[in-house]
Here is the input.
Amino acid sequence: MIEIDRITKIYDGETAVDDVSMTVETGTITVIVGTSGSGKTTLLRMINRLEEPTSGEVRINGESTLSVKPHILRRRIGYAIQGHGLFPHHSVARNIAAVPDLLNWPRDKIRARVDELLTLFSMEPAQFRDRFPSELSGGQQQRVGVARALASRPDLLLMDEPFGALDPIIRTRAQEDLRRIQQKLRSTIMLVTHDMEEAMRLGDRVAVMDGGRLVQHGTPAEIITRPATDFVANMVGDVERPLRLLSLIPVTEVMEEGAAEGAALTTRASLRDALSACLWTRRVEVPVERDGVRVGRVTLDAILARVGSHA
Here is the structure.
């Protein structure tokens, strides 16, 4: 459990984060969303003490982060940023092994962990272990960055706009990968974004910040259906609300028997993903697969019926 207790940060008399409190449950994803200058990145950086709080406290499993030396604390907290921040002259394996090396893990344990994570991210170890970042695509580099942050099995993974540099198609796949891996590992993740749609897609809980203050903290459905302030309502967008609600509905809810042509969505995809796929490829139905096997289809009519029911 992560407890953020009345944390404040003041720079030169200006309050960047103002008396924020929230609790993050173990094994969940909390997304912090807000516009530029809302304090979301400063809040994230105070958790691993890249920024020192002016007042207040963060506790991880009951222990104050102020009681731990910052460099020791950071080895226990994974950190992934936009653009991945890989060491360009180190191999993929050496990048992933950076923190386990610092922790003096045995070589065989490090190699096993590197191969485990590469496999988890659908990157064949024999094929990718010895490559360098310049030999990877943007999406592959981002996967390695997240794998590095997870390598030492941290108590908490912090992510600051991790998918912001990716194009929309790769970004959607990276988000699916993160959700799948988080559910498998039961990692606790706090992720910062300015993109409300990304927050709705990934978050078990969403924290909305405005002017340094936490203005709403709840489930995606609560944020969409009961915005606490005009600012939150504007971020959700009245016109887009039915479409954002589609982000919360898995394709399996309207999937039907039958075959369909073209690239398939996974059963983890949302109806928003299915609608995008139909519109982008001018199809009236898309196939759905589970573990590489096609198990049904979702039709455009079924999706639009759900849009109408929430309009």
